[in-house]
Amino acid sequence: MTTTFLRRTLTAAAATGGAAVLILTAAAGASAHVGVKPDKTDANSYALLTFGIPHGCEESGTIKVTITLPAELNDAQPTVNPNWTVEKVTEQLAEPKKLADGTSITKRTGQIVYTAKAPLEHELRDALVLSVKLPDAAGSTLYFPTLQTCETGQTDWSEIAKDGQDPHSLKAPAPSITITEAAVDGHGAAASAAHTTEAPATEQAAAVTDSDADARSWAGLAAGLGGLALGGVAFARSGSKRRQDSAT
What we know:
- 31% of the residues lie in helices and 31% in strands.
- It is an alpha+beta fold.
- The protein has a 5-stranded antiparallel beta sheet with strand order 5-6-3-9-10, with no helix packed on it. Strands 1-2-7-4 form a 4-stranded antiparallel beta sheet, covered by helices on one side. The protein has a two-stranded antiparallel sheet with strand order 8-11.
- The longest helix has 49 residues.
- The protein is globular, with a radius of gyration of 25 Å.
- The two termini are 15 Å apart.
C-alpha cells in the first residue's frame, strides 16, 4: 500500500513538473523573436501594428530598433513611447507614385527608428506601436525587416521564407502580417477607416493592452502552476487519509 501510494505521489509530482516546464518553454518561445501583432488586417483600412521587442543580443541591452516599412506602405505614424525617442526616415522614390485619389508622391517614409533613452535590459521587453494605412491587396503578405541594435552586437530580423520553406525554420524571421479581405458594412459596401480625434487614444490603448496581455499571461502561468501544485498536495493528502482509514 505504502509503495503504491509513493509511486502515485511521485508520478503526480513528475507530471506537475513536466507541465511547468512545458508552460515555461512555451512562454519563452513566444517571446524569442521580434514579432508584430495587428489590431486588424482588413484591406484598405487603418491598423495599429504592435511590435514586441524581446531580448535579441543574448545578455546585451537593446539601444535602437529600426523598422523598415514594406514598399506597399507610404507612411506610418509612430506612437509615442516614454522609453524611446522616435524619428521617421524618408526616402526619395525612383519615380513618382500615383495614389488612389489621383495625386502623386515623390517621397515615402522608409523607416521608423526608435532609440532607447536607456538600454532595454535583456530580461525585459517593450512594445512599439505604429499606425498604418493598409493597401488594398487582400491575400498579400507585408514584411517589416527590423534591425535590433544592442550595446554589444545586433540582430537583423529580416529573413523571409522561400517557396516551400518552413517559416519556423528561420533563425531571424522578419515580422509580417497578411492582408485579408476588406470589411463589409451592413449595406454591402466595403467599410473604410479614417483618422479621427479618437485615434491617439486608441493607439495608446493598444500599447497598454499589449503590456497588459503579457502581465495576464504570466499571471495565468503562475496561477496554473499554483493549481498544479495544490492538486499534487490534495492528491497526497487524500492518499494519506485513505491509509489512515485502512489502519482503523
